[in-house]
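URGENT: need a sanity check before tomorrow's submission.

F., can you look over the Non-homologous end-joining DNA ligase record below? I want to be sure the sequence and structure line up before it goes out.
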Amino acid sequence: MPITEVEGHRFKITHLDRVLWPLTGTTKAEMLHYYATVGAVLLPHTRGRQVSFVRTPDGVEGQRFFQKRPPAGTPEWVTVVETVRNSGETMEQVQVNDLATLIWAGNLSCVEIHTHQWLADAPGTADRLVLDLDPGPGRTVVDCCEVALLLRDRLAEDGITSWAKTSGSKGLHLLAGVRGASPRAASDYARAVARELESRHPTTVISRMTRADRTGRVFIDWSQNAARKTTAAPYTVRARETPTVSAPVSWREVAAVRRPEQLTFTIDDVPGRVAADGDLMAGLLDPGNAGTLPG
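Structure tokens as predicted:
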């Protein structure tokens, strides 16, 4: 059983030839190589935040589960912190703060990485605003891009600068840095903006949770800002049919999209994008770009 050393930490790497994506024949080794390659741009978006994982030990067509607590056998060098749940009980969660932890988690087939919109040392303060655009039946990510541009401009009216990334599935995520906001305030603001856009564009946008009403519209999911919710991290792989990535995209790309495949990126595509453009979401990490929510 191979032993690897990453940043001074030694651990076992197992089943490198295991196929995690049968449709493309993509193996665990290829996924680990991807995470090692993009770690420099991924880690700033996960560092200091509790994470949850989507694990697919038998591949994406087999059993999968959402893991919030530290996996059994978590090494002592992995950062584990406590979080207080709504019930008042505490729960330990992992932080992916370094490359060693990223590769260790990948070896456990933790394919997806999800983060909260707040830092572990400030759980009552949201520093991220997220709006999840999900195309209803009859709509695609192309329609999400049109709504994203509307949202970008609406947020800018309140001094909120936003960045976009693919969800790695069917839709698009908008993220913005905010300061001094509670998760409740962030949720209320996101809901108000979503409702406002629905009122302006009722045939295109919906903000209500009712799935039956989403046909032919783009759903703006504002609820991801709740303290208990998590969202796919930038650059995480997704446990879909193929190894797609939740990849940051430029506003120029968003405006130019005409076909859904133009915003479909896999682990084969993203390293080249990073090499050419760096982190297209780097501005989100600059505290100077954080806005203050109105009200």
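My own read: Residues 79 and 95 are 6 Å apart (CA to CA). The helical segments are 28-46, 99-107, 141-157, 183-200, 251-256, 270-277. If you see anything odd, call me.
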